[in-house]
Specification:
about 800 residues, globular, Rossmann fold, alpha+beta, Jelly Rolls, dipeptidyl-peptidase activity, 4 domains
């Protein structure tokens, strides 16, 4: 049974440079219940009134920043270290010194606030509304309230501001999504489950009201009224990991209850977005700025990590000048004077300064504009060609052409096509929105079940004049490309009549009534929204456009691999399972499923995507095993006639392919690759016996009839080609002594080299630590490890893989 609420409100006027009130109670008006908050006031608040900065959220008003994220806190500007610093919120030590009261409230059902835990819900906005009005009415308040915070504490600002609580005078949503469905939960209709699961299980449910053991875990104090049972806590919780997975469309109650009209926002706002936030907040900051109804609204773009820039001295001074203007009437820069300041302040990403390097990112110049999108924007078209280039002029072709790749790719087994521009002949800035017009189809295997949908994952990458991919700082300091976009093809329907629909930004309702069939063999024209971006491509640089069937490099913890959202029977045939258990020989289509099966083994086994390593018939009869890379050499060494076995397809495996339809032709090109094993190099090019087109490295695709008699040698060759490193990367390899080698980039080709460190944290990063720890595989990024620790971490992974390859 829930315990009777107690009043443990305390006031400490001596221990800190400010007055500290803990567990002040706010009785809710718009709904039942009580919210508890901490109040930090200047010591002169007994005789003066001050404007108030309010935050309302799930991370615990009493959990200190150093306990929530120790590494991050150690890097925060020391001016914002105090006894009550908290994750992603304004520091009371700093702001009370500058004439502000800080109110930090625990969201209902979390910390010390009883009630139903239902994050980002209508109830969240209603209770936040009441806390804002309560703060404006207190004796120490000037009656004016501002909102300031990062991420969750930013995203909630849009919704409560649209409700227009009394006293709310301005907001600064710092890297905060404004569209719950499109920005956070379902990118193009595809569930972004990995981050939601991580976020919920680490940062939310661990702080639930009534959860025992919090104080012992250094996760804030235990609940004042005592612990609640597991059953009671479950009844008081709407699990976001379940709700987001079970609800798929915006007209379902779960998502519909979170809708609001951005035009209802009337208070002055400063929206701060990060060009590197390409999987969570970037879109929302820009769209919130564009569609808010405020007379005074400003957009500022930054770079860097998600956690630190908020506390940089120059950024804090900008925050303070804006807040002073609308909360104190002290307008030093002209924020409150119409037309005095440009409304848009951009940072221009020119040059390769590396990633997660704040000092080097200061080299980026800033420029102001008067609107977004920039009025003088020239929208340029680039055309995809069968030779996998991006051309500025429409190619002249005799008829439709097709490029194919396998369905249901993932970060650990990416499946994609790459299209590369010629080198830019002059410096070119790209700033704004991108839309991709694609013709796509689905080609199933005749023997398997028929797939019924396609997920498109698009990425735009930047190649420097030196031929290296340029990576930018992502949310957690990880390496990310320029931008990404997504679409579930069954939700391809757009609504051109909607007032927010633009040619450069198609509007989709994502309603259940919008679902359209995807029939194998039919070609569908789709418009895919790619999130806005900025880059200055220097003379000699290139762009690479990537079309994939799953997450690729740069996705980090924001992956889309929910088994119920992307089931194999819906998105791919079930035919060839490339991950083989070394214990039971059972095949699996995904490496995480394999690891779960093999997890009971005392030592972790590395798995190579591709054919099963086995002996030919002759080797088996002589109790030998064929070599791994040079498959039949042992037969020759023992003077045994090699008898290659034929294998039948394994039922229940994914091998469907996705097709991009173009209207140009291309002659097949021979293969010349130094990494090709001797045995395969002795054979004629694979394209010589097959029709179709080629990939950027001259590799064959899968646009042919699968009903052919392929033996293990054939499948091994195809597998090696298909999983070869992208961009001619400096992929780690081994010689006979097991020494790591680096492959030089291809001269005079479309392939470009990827820096070794970036390659490691992109392709080689996903190595689960145990059979039950897959979702934690990317957590080193969110824990903000320092660069040297991260390098050592990935180096150890590569060494382990090298040793395993040599043992094979």
């Amino acid at each position: 049974m829930p315990h009777e609420l107690q009043d443990l409100h305390t006031v400490d006027e001596k221990s800190f440079p400010y007055i500290f009130e803990q567990n002040a109670s706010v009785s809710l008006k718009t709904s039942e219940g009580t919210v508890r908050c901490n109040v930090y006031r200047p010591k002169s608040a007994h005789v003066e009134k001050f404007p108030v900065l309010v935050t309302y959220g799930p991370y615990g008003k009493d959990i200190h920043y150093k306990d929530f994220h120790p590494k991050s806190f150690s890097e925060v500007n020391p001016d914002h270290h105090s006894a009550h610093s908290a994750w992603e919120t304004p520091d009371p030590g700093f702001w009370t010194q500058h004439g502000y009261v800080v109110v930090r409230a625990d969201e209902r059902g979390l910390g010390q606030s009883p009630g139903l835990l239902d994050t980002m819900s209508r109830g969240t906005s209603e209770a936040f509304f009441d806390v804002v009005e309560w703060a404006a009415e207190q004796s120490w308040s000037s009656g004016k309230v501002g909102l300031l915070g990062i991420s969750y504490y930013a995203g909630s600002q849009w919704r409560v501001a649209a409700r227009k609580p009394k006293g709310l005078a301005c907001i600064i949503p710092w890297e905060g999504m404004s569209d719950y469905y499109r920005d956070r939960c379902r990118h193009g209709g595809i569930l972004s489950n990995k981050f939601i699961n991580f976020w919920w299980n680490r940062q939310v449910i661990t702080n639930q009201y009534g959860k025992p053991g919090r104080q012992a875990a250094n996760w804030g104090p235990d609940t004042i009224e005592g612990d609640l049972s597991v059953e009671e806590r479950e009844l008081n919780c709407q699990d976001q990991t379940i709700d987001t997975a079970n609800s798929r469309f915006r007209d379902e109650e779960y998502y519909a209850s979170k809708e609001y009209d951005m035009a209802d926002i009337a208070v002055p706002l400063l929206s701060v977005g990060n060009w590197g936030g390409i999987l969570l907040h970037l879109r929302g900051n820009i769209e919130g700025f564009v569609h808010a109804g405020s007379e005074f609204k400003y957009l500022r773009m930054i770079t860097g990590r998600h956690d630190l820039p908020f506390y940089y001295a120059e950024e804090v001074e900008l925050q303070r000048s804006f807040l002073d203007a609308f909360l104190k009437g002290e307008d030093r820069l002209g924020w409150s004077i119409k037309g005095k300041l440009p409304t848009v302040d951009l940072v221009l990403r020119k040059g390769d300064v590396g990633f997660n390097d704040a000092e080097r990112e200061k080299m980026y110049e800033r420029r102001t504009e008067n609107e977004w999108p920039i009025a003088r924007t020239v929208y340029a078209k680039f055309y995809l060609t069968p030779s996998q280039t991006l051309e500025s002029s429409e190619p002249s072709v005799p008829g439709p052409q097709k490029l194919s790749y396998r369905a249901l790719g993932s970060l650990d087994r990416p499946e994609f096509l790459l299209f590369t521009t010629p080198t830019f002949e002059q410096e070119t800035e790209i700033t704004g929105h991108i839309v991709a017009h694609l013709n796509v189809s689905l080609s199933p295997h005749a023997a398997g079940p028929t797939p019924s949908d396609i997920d498109l994952f698009l990425t735009l990458r930047h190649i420097s004049p030196a031929g290296n991919e340029v990576f930018y700082t992502g949310t957690a300091g990880d390496a990310v490309p320029l931008t990404k976009g997504w679409l579930r093809v069954s939700l391809r329907k757009t609504n051109p009549q909607h007032p927010k629909h633009r040619e450069y930004l198609p509007w989709r309702d994502y309603f259940s009534t919008d679902v359209q069939p995807v029939i194998p063999g039919d070609v569908y024209a789709v418009d895919v929204e790619v999130w806005p971006t900025n880059v200055v491509v220097e003379k000699g640089g290139k762009l690479v456009f990537e079309v994939a069937s799953g997450d690729t490099q740069g996705s980090g913890i924001f992956q889309h691999d929910g088994p119920n959202d992307r089931p194999e029977e819906k998105f791919a045939d079930t035919r060839q399972k490339p991950y083989i258990c070394t214990t039971c020989s059972k095949g699996f289509s995904r490496v995480n499923l394999l690891c779960a099966s093999d997890g009971s083994s005392k030592r972790r086994r590395d798995v190579r995507a591709g054919r099963v390593i086995q002996a030919c018939e002759s080797c088996a009869q002589n109790h030998l095993r064929c070599e791994h890379e040079r498959s039949w050499n042992r037969c020759r060494k023992k003077d045994i006639e090699c008898q290659v076995p034929t294998t039948a397809d394994v039922p229940g495996e994914s091998s469907g392919s996705l097709d991009l339809i173009d209207n140009a032709t291309q002659e097949p090109t021979p293969i010349d690759d130094s990494m090709l094993p001797d045995h395969f190099r002795s054979h004629p090019p694979l394209e010589s016996g097959l029709s179709g087109t080629t990939t950027p490295r001259g590799l064959m695709d899968f646009s042919f009839n699968w009903d052919v008699d392929l033996n293990d040698m054939d499948m091994g060759s195809l597998s090696w080609y298909n999983y070869h490193a992208p961009f001619g990367a400096e992929a780690p390899s081994t010689n006979t002594q097991g020494v790591l080698q680096q492959i030089a980039s291809e001269p005079n080709g479309n392939g470009v080299s990827m820096r070794h460190e970036a390659f490691k944290i992109s392709v080689w990063q996903y190595l689960p630590q145990s059979n039950r720890n897959f979702e934690a595989a990317e957590q080193p990024n969110l824990a903000f490890e320092d660069a040297e620790m991260e390098k050592n971490h990935h180096r150890s992974q590569l060494t382990a893989r090298t040793a395993i390859q040599e043992r094979l």
